[in-house]
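Lecture 7 notes: from sequence to structure.

We start with a single chain of 1187 residues. Read the sequence below before looking at the structure.
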Amino acid sequence: MFAILQFELRQRFTSISTYVYFLMFFALAMLWMAAAGGAFSGAVVSFGGKVSINAPVSVSQTITFLGYMGIVIVAAMMGRGVQQDAEHNIWHFFYTAPLKKYQYLGGRFLGAYLTLLAIFSSIGLGAWLGCYLPGIEANRLGPIIPGAYFLPYFFSIMPNFLVFGALFFMLGAVFKRMLPVYISSVVLLIGYMIAKSLGKDLDDRTLAALIDAFGSSAISRVTEYWSIAEKNHRLVPLQGLYLANRLIWLAIGACIFAIGYWRFSFTAINTSGKQKKTANEEVSSAPAQLVRAIPNFASRSLFQLFIKQSWLNLKETVKNVYFIVILLTGVLFMFAMSDNVGKMFGTTTYPVTYAVLQLLGGSFGLFILIITTFYAGELVWRERDARISQLLDALPVPNWLPLLSKLFALISLQAILLFIVMLCGMLIQLFQGFTHLQAGLYLKDLFIVHLPEYALVAVLAISLQVVINHKYAAHFAMILYYIAGIALPALGFEHPMFLYGTIPNVVYSDMNGYGHFLAKVYWFQFFWSGAAILLITLSMLLWVRGTTSDWRGRLRLASLNVTGATRLSILAGFVIFLGAGGILFYNLNILNHYQNSYDKQLDSAQYEKLYKQYETRLQPRIIDVNMNVDIYPERRSASIKGSYQLVNRGDAPIEEVFVNENDDANIINMQFDRASSQEIRDKRGFYSYKLRPALQPGEKMTLNFELGYAPKGILGLGGDSHVIGNGTFFNSGLMPQIGYQPGFELSDEKERSKHGLPARERMADRDDPKGLANNYISNDADWISFDATVSTSADQIAIAPGKLDKEWTENGRRYFHYTLDKPILNFYAFQSARYVVKRDKWQDVAIEIDYNKGHEYDLDRMIKGVQASLAYYTANFGPYQHKLVRIVEFPRYANFAQAFPNSIPYSESIGFIAKVDDKNPKDLDYPFYVTAHEVAHQWWAHQVVSGNTKGATVLSETLAQYSALMVMKQMYGDAKMRRFLRYELDGYLFGRSQERKKELPLARNENQPYIHYQKGSLVMYELQDQIGEDKVNAALRDVIAQYANKGAPYPNSRALVDALRKVTPQDRLYLIDDLFESITLFENRALSATAKAAAGGQYEVKLKISANKLKAGELGEEKEVALKDWIDIGVDDKDGKPLLRDRKYIDRKEMEFIMLVKGEPAKAGIDPDNKLIDHKPDDNLVKVDMQ
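Now the structure, written as tokens:
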């Protein structure tokens, strides 16, 4: 065996490919670390905010991720261990040698395995040396931890290569072909994708961690809630699910190796059943009659031959058993994914066609690319592998015929796969009882939008096989191409014209279809088709015929193959490529001012450097807004004429006014009601006007302005979606803003450092007087009066906040006049679409839902949510300030709902197609919940709004979360709340693990969503559970009574904290600090539970628990604190229904409790409903052992 091993290693290490692979992964690892370390100005690679680039988790991610990308190289090297002997027809030398089977297979296997380890050791080496490259920012580096570079190899790379190597090696050894090896690698990748998909659902994460052969899902499960401090210093341990995953897959690998060892035979090359049958049959020797055939190679016959050859290539591929296997695997994958269509809170959506296409098409796309890469090699090399190439090469047919027939077959194969996607999608819809199949949308999306993109890849894959003239080197080149698609954007090369075949993503909306976005797709398809023509022409010239394979000979033959047709083809390719490219570049870069991420950062940095000096300048405040908005959906433009009434609320005259223009809207005219001169006009939209005379304290003035919004360029290829054919939605951010805007500044520490800006807090301190002088919604107004007239096309309804006072038609257009009789924030929106309107009411408040026809699924849930919310909020917080609540649907170009005064724009994708099963205990009625949250903002933000300081969002988002939770609890009970809180806990723990700067307590959060949303839900629910819902609501009523519609100085989060402190009993006051003013975590665990029958059908349950309380710092560093808390203990039955909930005073780390329950217990534990913020919530309950 050692002789074979030495021979194998010598062969491998004298091959140039081994060193090419080593250097490639070494360079990739160094570039990856350099990009993460800030060496490239436009790079966006990150391991998450404060996580060091050489932290154990970061190094593990780098090594394992790049290792996954090398799966094809693993397949190529391990699969060819024995297969290469058959390929080179030298198998009989080894099969007849005095070798044992274990010596031959063991030596080959170990040689390939050790070579792989040597190659992939380059990743760890590159990751280590990459930290010392010039340009790496010191603040992104942590201490070097040697184990971080070795353990990923011991725990991940080495076991994976053993498992995958066993599979690939034995498939190659048994079948003597590489295609089944590559097919198996695709199957592994599909399994990985299924595991990743399952991991998105809380209920399936354990299963996902076990079935992922790569082990990455298990690593994610182990580290998913690690804090920044843990990620920076803690090594990824081989324990729990990660250990179980490794043992399971090593066992599977051993079984595969054993089966392959058993199947392998030294007797002969494996032959198919058909070949065996033919070989064993007696062949008759009857004379055959000679038929004289005269081949016809005229143009018409060549075309017929092209069709026949294309069909032959396609048929041979499709009928192949390996293709059938991979196809069936792909079909199973799509059906396995079907349960995740549009899932939110574990609840599915109706399988509308666009959602099915997004799920299946997006996931299956990788599958198609892999098949395209593999079968390009099989098609180009088919004749040479069968050793009949010279026979066919001698035929008097032009080079284009074999080349284009193979290309056409490959593209046809892609079309078949897309047809399978369509068929599976329709079957999934029908199986789920959904019959609105939209066959036209399937055809357009798959065959017009996506097939050309895949065809471009097919051209490249075929061309590389021809030009490189080495099957596996061409596969390797395609891998580099796919890596470039990931790496280039991460390195700042984001422009879609950088990389061949890049087509901008297009989003389909039921409201607006593909809209204007499809034109850009067509132009890019046309642009890249020019490059494809050039590649095809090059491949025709270099097509290998005969035995000439050296570059000098191939180039000489290529020069002889140049004809008038090839010259015309080259000319056409260049004309299309340069012509379409020039038009695209002009429209995208010149007219639409294309900017990558770095350019946008640079603009923000320059804005701050140039104009921050004006931040403290006294500026007038907007007190009245009057708008005349004309929306033209058919041409995607809008004309806006507005006026602001401004007042000087300061104690000094204002001589200079600063105005900011939105990038998407052009200021056509701006006129004050007094003389003014423009002093600054910056390309970033910053203007300065000198007033003559100055605006005196208390004095008012009017600013009239006219804005134009229209697509820029002759093609209208801009990526904006403000004004569209059906579903226009834009807000006050499009309007001129007064004064310097700190919101335009860079907030990320790394980005600020990159541009030479000093570190800054994301928000001002909680009690900062300057911060409390403005609300956190806008810094140029307090409360304003509002009036708007909006016009649109005759078939649409235009909407703005307020009551509709008047509607009329003029010159074929519809006009709507909206007014508000109560002051509002300077925060409003305009919408226009072909709406159907559903109306209802609650007491004297009208309810209106403006929606897209066909989206009736959840309207009743939304109306029920509005009614329940109005009833609860008016009873507990105070009256609703308007006479209408309006929900307005908008296209899924954005995925949120947002509350404006009496109007709630609501994305079609998050509530209008939810498929909530009220009988399913796992389903959450999120259309009801989201509606309740947005209605709550009519109190929390639109009545009480915080100053622009830390903790501002507690008074809006956290209280809206609480309000919606109470409405939901009232409607659906505690059982649903238990599941909802588990999702909120997951969101908070994961969010803090991804923190980019520092985690702060809830009352001082810096507009951090995972804190004010997810943690806010947990905090407020726990508080009301401990002190009572009525007491919490009483405190909130006091907050509204004291601060509703209050201007500067605005309240901060102390207003809420102090109000809650007043109503909290003495023995629960510790909760105020724990929940609002510090970061408090628990490590609670149920150790054991036993039960025995008692009298009266009861059971005596004995429960032993462990509890620990921790305080965390800004980066997650923890310290243990004394435990003196009231915590729930509970017992559940086999269906998860509570048999007992009892609150106990916990003051020791370990305690025992004895409880009597009515009903047979199944589980018992501490904090059974996950109300507390627990590191490991899954161990709170333990199975009850019956005695």
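The first strand starts at residue 621 and ends at 632. Keep this in mind for problem set 3.
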